[in-house]
Amino acid sequence: MSARIFIDGEAGTTGLQIRQRLSGRHDLTFLSLGEAERKDPARRAEQLNAADLVILCLPDAAAREAVALIENPDVRVIDASSAHRTAEGWTYGFAEMAPGQAAAIAAAKRVTNPGCYPTGAIALLRPLIDGGLLPADLAVTVNAVSGYSGGGRKLIERHEDRSAPDHIAAPFHVYGLGLEHKHVEEMRLHAGLGHRPLFVPSVGRFAQGMITQVPLQLWTLADPPRPGALVDCLRAAYAEAPFVTLVEPEEAAGLERLEPEGLNGTNHMRLHVFANKAGDEVLLAAVYDNLGKGASGAAVQNLNLMLGLTADTGLDERRVA
Fold first, then answer.
1. E strands along the chain, which residues?
2. Do 78 and 146 belong to one domain?
3. Are residues 106 and 125 in the same domain?
4. Cα torsion through 159, 116, 142, 105, rounded to 10
5. Torsion of CA 233, 84, 299, 145, to 10 degrees
6. Which portions of the chain are predicted below pLDDT 50?
7. Would residue 89 count as lying in a domain?
8. How far is CA 175 from CA 30, 83, 200, 202, 298, in A?
9. Which residues pair with 210 in a beta bridge?
10. 199: which strand partners?
11. In terms of DSSP H, where are the helices of the chain?
């Protein structure tokens, strides 16, 4: 019997991407609402409670409302919003984050999909903190740039509609200048940091793709690790990961630049460790698709795990060397 899937908010950017990634799956049956029914609470509640698994692609407040409408104890939920990413009772949906995380997702009733920016920061930091190479109380800065699709339909329109009064023509802009971005606590908690990271998000004039960077001044540490130890730790952490790949030092040393669009359309993420000659300054960097591993790809990966399938079922199987 195929699993019944209801995507609440399937007309939005993430919902459309998830539906596209699930197209052609014969092991799934999709429940849906017509455009006129989507704002009918009774019809939404009916579909939410009839599904085996619900994926919420909604604003935070609407996601909380949707969860409150679910009365059927057998319904499982993946929330793609940021409403529950630090909430008790929800399993964090980054399967590669730590040993046992994929199994926890597979067993969970409530899974919260990670944010796009935190996915890269956590992937870079969590193994190094868990492995004792970086102290949990380290002062961390996270710099990241995303394609404008990460801001949803309104930001997409502001970039693509030249006639819009609030059209954004700039090739690049930094935002979150109050340093209170909603991703900050998510990063702190799931990376295992003792203090809030200083997070500097930005948007480029390209539709999708992402680079997340964490610069490290190793010379400030009492017992600084060598860059090679960081590489070894990350390599070991993701040795069996189906979608996360460490770029080996020889290849990283030969790179002249990183481009954010290289993994678009996939659920893959590439991690890099760059170091100066003295080995006392390091740049950690992750490249991935903000709509792939940063959103819809991760949701499909979590869906697969929750349905007892392999993580890559129905996802692209291209292994990035």
1. 3-8, 28-31, 53-56, 76-79, 91-92, 110-112, 141-147, 172-174, 198-204, 210-217, 244-246, 269-275, 281-288
2. no
3. no
4. 170
5. -60
6. 317-321
7. yes
8. 37, 21, 7, 6, 25
9. 146, 288
10. 142
11. 13-22, 41-50, 60-69, 101-107, 116-130, 152-160, 183-191, 227-237, 249-253, 297-306
For the stretch 264-285, pLDDT in tens is: 999 999 999 999 999 999 999 9
| Residue 63 in domain | yes
**Do 16 and 147 belong to one domain?**
no
Q: 126 and 99, same structural domain? A: no
Write the single-letter amino acid at 65.
E
CA atoms within 13 A on the CB side of 25: 22
Q: Extract the tokens encoding 124.
A: 């870079």
Name which of 14, 137, 25 is nearest 78 in CA terms.
14
Which of 67, 105, 116, 247 does the annotation list as catalytic?
Answer: 116
Cα end-to-end distance, the chain, whole Å: 37
Distance of CA 242 to the CA centre of its chain: 15
Report CA-CA distances (Å) from 154 to 159, 204, 227.
9, 15, 41
Average pLDDT taken over every residue of the chain: 93
Q: Which domain holds residue 105?
A: 3-114+295-306
Instruction: Please report, as a single letter, which amino acid is at residue 47.
Output: Q
Rounded CA gap, 50 and 45, in Å? 8
Active site residue 233: no
Write the CB contacts of 9 (distance below 8 Å, at least 6 apart in sequence): 15, 56, 57, 58, 62
**Nearest alpha carbon to residue 81 among 153, 176, 14:** 14
pLDDT of 35 reads: 79
Q: Which residues contact 317 (CB under 8 A, 6 or more apart)?
A: none
Judge contact between 59 and 151, C-beta under 8 A.
no
